[in-house]
Amino acid sequence: MRFSVFTAALPQWTPQQAVEQLAAQGWDGVEWRVVDQQDAPTPGFWAGNRCTWPLATLEEDVPRIRELTVGAGLAFSGIGGYALCDEHADVDRLLAATAALGAERVRVRTPALGAAPYPELFAHARRCFADIAGRAARHGVKVLVELHHQTVVSSSSAALRLLEGVDPDAVGVIHDLGNLVIEGGEDIRAGLEMLGPYLAHVHVKNCAWRPAETEVDGTVRWEHAWAELPTGQADVAGYLRHLTELGYDGWVTVEDFSTDRPLAERTAANLSYLRAARAGVPA
């Protein structure tokens, strides 16, 4: 089991600063965010993120991405792409760049809920990933489907239905513990077990629900908020135990969107916590 950080969670750092900090703290790898994003006056997770490579210039940036990563002694845990499964040209660009980098794995997004009835969206996504699997195999890379709230694949069960019959050497699942707090929650161990050979990657963050407002009739409205790894509703230490017991020895990538601590302190604390949890001792 190796630990990396998804750079969506590092908005204040440039790629150079990110690899220097992560290497100095002892992380094993990095998962680069690749997307054409909006600008923002202050760097944020989703806009103005300084640790994001633009899709528009991905091909010309490949040598620099490789130089920074390998030069810092870090490995690629994967590429965090944002292309939708039916954006064929962008998916092909991500596949080619992932192969050129030797990064092995790249995320491709599934449709969000609401654009059409769920059965139509799901059937469309299933056709797309069946097609993408062949293209990924030709590049020698694996496409990743993330368990994500408000998409057609929020649970292990849904992911298994999406990919059933598709080559697990070409397409796999990102099991995301924090996202499952929001939607798609099943028994965690059962979810991992049912994915079987499709369990290809792991994202770790934490989350908690809290009351947001009370309406005049007494109805309480709830909202979720990102939390530090030890403090949210998900049992991160227990999660690592399940993974170990089930023989998972792949990447565990942190995407911590909590903001209570400064970034360098937050990333260092996350690595210490994960190492202690893996070893079965208090952090």
Automatic annotation (TrEMBL):
Residues 20-276 form the Xylose isomerase-like TIM barrel domain. The keyword Isomerase applies. The keyword Lipid metabolism does not apply. Signal peptide: none annotated. It comes from the Bacteria. Coiled coil: none annotated. Keywords: Isomerase. GO terms for molecular function: isomerase activity. This is Sugar phosphate isomerase/epimerase. It comes from Pseudonocardia xinjiangensis.
